[in-house]
């Protein structure tokens, strides 16, 4: 399903489309979505490694510098 399936929505002013998008997002966000077991295990593993000092950490500035792209 795409926006093309709802031509009447494409004709709405952008403000109304944004309001509808917000309502759609909010309705989906309130639904309970289970976290896959594999994701939980990965998070637990990383947390344990962090707590044991096995993972290097970065300050926010270091992180920003590491992901900045040249202009």
Distance between the termini: 37 Å
The percentage helix is: 55-70%
As an assembly, this protein is single chain
Biggest sheet architecture: none
- Percent strand equals under 5%
The pLDDT mean sits at 90
How many individual helices? 4
Query: How many β-strand stretches?
Result: 0
List the keywords:
mainly alpha
Task: Write up what this structure looks like.
It is a single chain. This protein has helices spanning 7-10, 14-29, 37-51, 60-67. It has 71 residues and is mainly alpha-helical. The protein starts with 6 loop residues before the first helix and ends with a helix. It has a domain at 37-67. The longest helix is centred in the first third of the chain and has 16 residues, at 14-29.
Topology of this structure?
Elements lengths: L6 H4 L3 H16 L7 H15 L8 H8 L4
Short description:
By secondary structure, this protein is mostly helical. Helices cover 61% and strands 0% of the residues.
